[in-house]
Design goal:
alpha+beta, about 170 residues, seven-stranded mixed β-sheet, single chain, 5 helices, about 35% helix, 7 strands
């Protein structure tokens, strides 16, 4: 089975599981955990690739992200956990019926990058007019940031490969 077929199967399975769990109908307290508008930039913020828990780094990242939220530099912050980056993206996208177009890290196998817990990090969306300000803020606070892509009207694209519309898979 090729990588694209494996990814497509995982995409469909994960979306179905999240739908069963009600992740497509967010609770009011999840306001900062959802994509809001097509065209917003998506970043991966924080430490990736480490299996060790470092509470000092975790605390610093959470403190900086809370500050970014208070400064209205971000529209969405979705913690990455067991389901990996892909599950965080789906949780942020599904309630509004929005999608995403991302590029994975070419130094990490696609499946590992998307579906494994990469460490202490979050998927973050930012309005286009706050993009440079957020990146500078993270840089000034010595927080690692990687551009993933942007929010789409509903299509899911990974590394220039379409996986369908979020409402139809």
């Amino acid at each position: 089975m090729d990588t694209q077929s494996i990814l497509l199967r995982k995409v469909v399975e994960m979306r179905a599981r999240l739908h069963r769990e009600g992740a497509d109908k967010p609770a009011p307290e999840e306001a900062f955990g959802l994509f809001r508008n097509k065209g917003e930039m998506i970043y991966l913020v924080g430490e990736t690739g480490s299996t060790e828990v470092n509470l000092d780094k975790d605390y610093k990242i959470q403190k900086v992200m809370l500050s970014a939220m208070r400064k209205n530099l971000v529209s969405c912050v979705q913690e990455v956990s067991d389901g990996g980056i892909f599950e965080a993206l789906l949780r942020a996208a599904m309630p509004a019926g929005l999608g995403f177009d991302i590029t994975t890290d070419s130094e990490i196998p696609e499946e590992q990058f998307l579906f494994q817990d990469p460490g202490t990090c979050a998927v973050v969306a930012v309005p286009a007019d706050k993009d440079e300000e957020l990146v500078q803020f993270l840089f000034d606070n010595q927080i690692t940031v990687m551009t993933l892509g942007h929010v789409t009207k509903g299509d899911i694209r990974i590394d220039d490969q379409s996986y369908g519309n979020i409402r139809q898979i």
